[in-house]
Structures are given as C-alpha cells and as structure tokens.
Amino acid sequence: LAVAATAVLSPCTAFTIHSRTTIRTDVSRHMKQQHDSHDNDYAHHHHHHQQLSRRSAISILAIPPITSILASSSIPLPAMAEDKGKIVVLGGAGWVGAHVSNLLTQQGYKVLSISRSSSERQIERTKSILGTTIPSVEYVSLDAGTATMEELGSVMKDATCVISCVGIAPGGPNVKDGNGLVNSRIANAAKSVGVGKIVYVGVASSLANGPAKFLLGDYFKGKDTAEKSITKEFGIENSLIIKPSIVAGGTPGEIRPPGPPGVKAVDVDALAKVVVAGALSQGPGGLNGSIDGNDAIAAASL
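^ thats the sequence. predicted structure below, dont judge the formating
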C-alpha cells in the first residue's frame, strides 16, 4: 500500500516557500547557467468529490474532436509566428507542463512558464524532458506560495487561460497548504485579472477515494481544497479538471516508485493534448467540467 500510495503523482513543478522575486527570461537570449539545486519537479494530482456528470460527459462529446482543435499540432510553428494569445502555465517546465508548453507554442500561442525555479533552471529542465529548448517560451521565476496577489495577477494579466500543474508531493513540507492554498491563490489571482478559463491537472477519484487516503489524508485534503476554490472562482463551464491516476514516464534523473498495481499509466502526450484542448476550447460548448481517470483521458485525446 505504501508503494502504491506514493506513486499517485505525475510530474509537474511544485511551488514551495521561497522569496518574492520575479525574474523573466527568454531562452533565445540566455545560455545555460548553473541550475538551482533546490528545484524539485514534483508531479501533482488532485482530489475531486464530484464524479464526471452526465451533463459534463455530454458537453465533452458534443465538442469538435481534439484533433481538430489541435490542427497541425505535430508541425512546430516558426518562433516568430503571429501569436494567438497568451496562456500561463504554472509548472511549465515539469514533466507534463513542458509537453503542454511545447504543444501550445506549436499552436501559435505565447506561453509564460511560471515556477519557483530560476529561469535558467526551467530552460535546463525543459531540454532534459523534450530533448530541446522552446525558444518562444518566456520563463518567469515566481513562487505562487509567497508572492503577493498583485504579483501573481500581473503575470496572468491578459492571459486567455491559466493552466496549473503545481503541488507538493506526499511527504513534502506543508503538503496540505502546498496543494490547497497555493492553487486557491492561483485561481483567485487569475479571476481577479479577468482570465477566462483555468485548467487543472489533478488526481483520479479512484485513488483519492481508495486505500491511499488513509496514508495521504492531508495530501488529498489539499487537492480537495484546490478544486473547490477553482470551481468557486470559475464555475464548471469555465474550468476543466483533468484527473489522471498515474502518468507514464518522468523527468530524466528522477527515481519514481512503480504505479499502483493493475493501473495502466496514461501517456504524457495524450494528457498534454487534453490539457491544451481544454485551454483552447472555451465557453459553454467547450471542453469543461471534469475528465476523471486514465481511460477517460485517453478517450478524450483521440
């Protein structure tokens, strides 16, 4: 049970307590520097009490196929291509976040990757994950746990969507607030500056409601707080919560325990496609609500 319980995470960048420093960098203007040894690329998942409702399922099935939303997604756009808008990815240099950021830039969107890590460290992590950098991404060093609401809002201003892949892994410090309060602050800041939609990568209900909850109570309570805050600020029709049980692969150099017995991991590319499709399809007819579990994610990615 201990092994299964600690394996419910998929890799995304975590926010913890650091100084209130905002640093912006564009990879095309910087060479690699010594990385921040305190950066931890934790994956996070998220507990959600509500199951995928019939209404949500119908709205998901009624939208255009994801392949049509992500037109020409396999062909990277030129770095100087006209952008279609700004999207903020918190944890944009983590295992899931890097794939999401890459796919968004291929679609012609301006991406801000926000992490507590230095800009240079984010660039290094992205290259270790994708095998290349993403020159058009702007990397911002900002701790969502300690930044003022004005600082958070300023980097989200004019964004059409905010994507959150952040949290604290079980066993880490302040795991309840690190998952709940931090994401509540993200949702509140996004709403305060008029962001139209939020997409959140969480954890499958099957894990949150299973035996792991007895070992990881504060972890799941934090995820529950985060989801309730997102729903409160944006409602079901302006938010998407994607809930994998475990994601295949991980950032090179990281050692992760095996997944829960009998649970098939979802491919990171499939998860990234659903995240991006949710960010790009907004409004009552968009990809909204909840997509719970690896089978549902895999089906939605087709």
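Residues 175-192 form the longest helix (18 residues).
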